[in-house]
Structure to design on (578 residues):
C-alpha cells in the first residue's frame, strides 16, 4: 500500500487472534468501509511465518493467546528488519494498565478494547493506514517519478533474495542507467531533465506491465517485476520468480527499444539510449550486496563500450545470449537468403507397406553450411513470432512440391504440414491459409494440417471454429503428439479432426514397457471408435511395428522405413516409376 494514501482500502490487513469469531466480526466491520484484503491467522505459532509471506500493511494483534502470546509476537516483529515500522493495533479484553503499557513499550502503535466497537475500529484503522501511507510516501517514494526509491529497494531486495533462497526461485536485477544523463541535463536544464525522467519512467513501467512480455517470456505463476528510481538517471528493475535467463535478455531488449523511441521535451525530439547491467540469482550471485555490485559492474562495462546495450555479469550466460542473438538475426534473414529447405518423411501403410503420404519437416541451412538442428531454432522462431512467416513459407513450398509430385505420377500421395500455435493466433491466419493453398494449386483434400493440443488452452471454442473453417476448405486435420498435451476427451469428440498422431515418447518404450503399451492401445482404440486414422511416429524397430500392426494402427513414420529426405532423394528412392 506504500504510496497509496488516496486508496487505503487496498491495504493488506492481517489479524492474529485465537478467537475466529472475533476475527470474522472485525473483518465484517471493515468490509463495510471497502477493505477487501484480509489474512486471518488463528494459530499464533504460525504468525511470523504468515507475516513474512503476505507482508501486510497493518497487523491487528490479540495479546492473550496460548503457546505464543501477543507480547512474544510484538517482540519478534520489532526485531525483524522488515517490520520495524509495521503499524500494530492491539485488540485486547484486558483492563490491566500494566499490560497495555508493556504492549506500547514493545512497539504497539495503538490499542483497542474488546469487544470491538465498530465505529472506533474503523476510525483507528483508517487513521493508522492514512498516517502510514503518508509516511511511506515521504520515506520510500521518489517525489518526481512516484516510483519506489533506494530505501524501498533495499528493504524489498533483501526480502526478495531471502524468499528466492527459501523457495528455490530464480530472479534477476537490472541496473538501467540513461547514457550521458548528466550532459543531457546540463544542455536542457533541470526541468527538462525532470521531464526526461518522467517519460522514461513511464515507458519502463508500461513495458513492465505489458502482458505480452510476461506471457511470452516468463511462465511461472505470480511473476513480478518491480521498478525503482534510485537517483539521477538510474533505475533498478527487479524480476522475481523467473523461468530462465533467456527471458531476462528478451525483456532487456524490449526495454532498450522503448527507451530509444524519441522523446518530446520542450517542443523538440530527444533521442536517448541506456546501459543495462544484469545479475541473476542464483547463477551469478546469492546475496544482495554481490548481486547489486555485479549488476552495477555489468552496466559500467556497457557504458564504457559505448552504451545502448545490455550485459550479463556472467560471461557464460552472456555468451549463451550472444549465441541466441546471433541465431535470431540469422533467422530474420534466412527467408530472404532462401536458407530454409524442406525434408519429407514417408507415412507408410502398416498393412501394405506402401507410402500413403509424407510429412514436410523444416530444415535450416545457415550460410550454406551444415543443417541447424530444428530444436535449436524452432523454439526461437516461436518466441520471436518469426514462425508465422516461416510457417507460411513451409505451407506454400510443401503444397507446391505435392503438386509437382502429383503431376509426375504420384496422384494419391498426401502431404502433412505442421502448424504453430502462433499461426492460429495470427489475425490473418485463415485468409493466409486459403491464399497459400489457392496459389499453390494443390488439391486441399490431399493436404493435412497438423496442430498440437496446446492450441486448445486458449479460447477453445474459437479454435474449434477455426478448425471447422479449415475443414470447410476441404483440408484434413491431424492432432500431433497426441497424449502429451491438453488431451481433453470432452473436446476431442467435438474437434473436426481426421487423424491422431501418437507421440514418439510412447512409441519408444513399446513393447517393453506395459504402461506405454497400454497408452498406445487405448489411443488406437479411442481413435477407431471416433472414426479417426492413427499414425505412430518414431518407429525404429520391427518389434514396435509388429505391436502396432497387432493393435491395428493405420500408418507409421520412422527410421525403420526412412529418415526425412530432401524432395529429390525421396522421389528417386520411393516415388519415381521404375
Amino acid at each position: 500500500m506504500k504510496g497509496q494514501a488516496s486508496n487505503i482500502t487496498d491495504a493488506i490487513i492481517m489479524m492474529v487472534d485465537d478467537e475466529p469469531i472475533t476475527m470474522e466480526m472485525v473483518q465484517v466491520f471493515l468490509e463495510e468501509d471497502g477493505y477487501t484484503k484480509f489474512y486471518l491467522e488463528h494459530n499464533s505459532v504460525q504468525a511470523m511465518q504468515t507475516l513474512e509471506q503476505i507482508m501486510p500493511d497493518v497487523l491487528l494483534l490479540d495479546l492473550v493467546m496460548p503457546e505464543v502470546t501477543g507480547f512474544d509476537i510484538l517482540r519478534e516483529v520489532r526485531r525483524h528488519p522488515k517490520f520495524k515500522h509495521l503499524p500494530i493495533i492491539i485488540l485486547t479484553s484486558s483492563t490491566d494498565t500494566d499490560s497495555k503499557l508493556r504492549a506500547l513499550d514493545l512497539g504497539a502503535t495503538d490499542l483497542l478494547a474488546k469487544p470491538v466497537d465498530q465505529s472506533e475500529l474503523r476510525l483507528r484503522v483508517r487513521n493508522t493506514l492514512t498516517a502510514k501511507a503518508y509516511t511511506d510516501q515521504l520515506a520510500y517514494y521518489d517525489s518526481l517519478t512516484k516510483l519506489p526509491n533506494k530505501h524501498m529497494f533495499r528493504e524489498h531486495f533483501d526480502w526478495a533474495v531471502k524468499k528466492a533462497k527459501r523457495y528455490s526461485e530464480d530472479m534477476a536485477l537490472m541496473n538501467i542507467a540513461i547514457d550521458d544523463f548528466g550532459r543531457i541535463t546540463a544542455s536542457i536544464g533541470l526541468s527538462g531533465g525532470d521531464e526526461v525522467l518522467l517519460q522514461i519512467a513511464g515507458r519502463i513501467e508500461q513495458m513492465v506491465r505489458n502482458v505480452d512480455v510476461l506471457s511470452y517470456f516468463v511462465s511461472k505463476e505470480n511473476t513480478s517485476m518491480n521498478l525503482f528510481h534510485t537517483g539521477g538517471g538510474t533505475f533498478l528493475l527487479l524480476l522475481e520468480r523467473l523461468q530462465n535467463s533467456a527471458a531476462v535478455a528478451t525483456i532487456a531488449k524490449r526495454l532498450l527499444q522503448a527507451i530509444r523511441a524519441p522523446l518530446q521535451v520542450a517542443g523538440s525530439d530527444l533521442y536517448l539510449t541506456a546501459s543495462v547491467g544484469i545479475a541473476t540469482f542464483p547463477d551469478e550471485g546469492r546475496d544482495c550486496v554481490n548481486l547489486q555490485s555485479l549488476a552495477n559492474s555489468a552496466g559500467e562495462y556497457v557504458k564504457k563500450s559505448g552504451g545502448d546495450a545490455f550485459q550479463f555479469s556472467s560471461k557464460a550466460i552472456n555468451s549463451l545470449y550472444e549465441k541466441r542473438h546471433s541465431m535470431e538475426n540469422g533467422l530474420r534473414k534466412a527467408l530472404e537468403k532462401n536458407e530454409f529447405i524442406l525434408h519429407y518423411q514417408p507415412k507408410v501403410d502398416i498393412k501394405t507397406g506402401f507410402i500413403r503420404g509424407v510429412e514436410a519437416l523444416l530444415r535450416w541451412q545457415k550460410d550454406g553450411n551444415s543443417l541447424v538442428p530444428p530444436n535449436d531454432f524452432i523454439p526461437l522462431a516461436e518466441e520471436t513470432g518469426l514462425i508465422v512467416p516461416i510457417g507460411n513459407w513451409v505451407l506454400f513450398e510443401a503444397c507446391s512440391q505435392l503438386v509437382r509430385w502429383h503431376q509426375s505420377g504420384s496422384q494419391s500421395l498426401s502431404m502433412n504440414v505442421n502448424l504453430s500455435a502462433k499461426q492460429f493466433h495470427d489475425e490473418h491466419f485463415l485468409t493466409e491459409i486459403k491464399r497459400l493453398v489457392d496459389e499453390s494449386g494443390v488439391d486441399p483434400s490431399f493436404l493435412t494440417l497438423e496442430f498440437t493440443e496446446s492450441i486448445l488452452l486458449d479460447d477453445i471454442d474459437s479454435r474449434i471454429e477455426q478448425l471447422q473453417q479449415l475443414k470447410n476448405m476441404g483440408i484434413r486435420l491431424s492432432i500431433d503428439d497426441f497424449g502429451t498435451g491438453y488431451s481433453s476427451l470432452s473436446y476431442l469428440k467435438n474437434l473436426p479432426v481426421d487423424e491422431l498422431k501418437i507421440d514418439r515418447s510412447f512409441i519408444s518404450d513399446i513393447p517393453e514397457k506395459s504402461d506405454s503399451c497400454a497408452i498406445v492401445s487405448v489411443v488406437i482404440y479411442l481413435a477407431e471408435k471416433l472414426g479417426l486414422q492413427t499414425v505412430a511416429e518414431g518407429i525404429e524397430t520391427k518389434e514396435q511395428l509388429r505391436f502396432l500392426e497387432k493393435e491395428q494402427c493405420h500408418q507409421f513414420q520412422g527410421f525403420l522405413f526412412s529418415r526425412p529426405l530432401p524432395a529429390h532423394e525421396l522421389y528417386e528412392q520411393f516415388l519415381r516409376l521404375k
Summary: The chain has 21 helices and 21 strands. The longest strand covers residues 340-349. Confidence is low (pLDDT under 50) at residues 2-6, 211-221. The two ends are 79 Å apart (CA to CA).
